[in-house]
Amino acid sequence: MENKIIYELNKLYPTGIRVTNKDLKRSIQDIYDRLGYQAHAKGTDILKYGYHAKKVKIRIDRKRVDGVELAKI
User: Fold this and answer.
1) Taking Cα atoms as reference points, which of 58, 2, 62 lies closest to residue 28?
2) In sequence order, which ranges of the chain are alpha helices (DSSP H)?
3) What are the φ/ψ torsions at residue 11 (nearest 5 degrees)?
4) Would you give the distance in Å from CA 7 to the centre of its chain?
5) Residue 57 forms beta bridges with which residues?
């Protein structure tokens, strides 16, 4: 199961991409639901699947929102 989650995340998030915390959590939960994995997604779950996450601010519509820059380990 874990290999399938890693595969899906690798397709979605290449190294260096910036994503808001809200979008990251939603994406992880979508993958869990699609694969039938019974868990509640958290943004920190990305760390379990071979990523390093650096906290950043992302500008969206003249607002700065919390997010992360992802890098594969």
Assistant:
1) 2
2) 2-12, 21-35
3) -70, -40
4) 13
5) 66
* Six-digit token string for 24: 């990251």
For residue 48, the one-letter residue type is K
Residue whose tokens read 């607002």: 63
Query: Which tokens hold the place of 29?
Result: 């939960």
Distance CA 66, CA 56 (A): 6
6-64 confidence digits (pLDDT tens): 999 999 999 999 999 999 999 999 999 999 999 999 989 999 999 999 999 999 999 99
Q: Is the dihedral of CA 12, 14, 20, 25 positive or negative?
A: positive
Coil vs helix vs strand at 18: strand
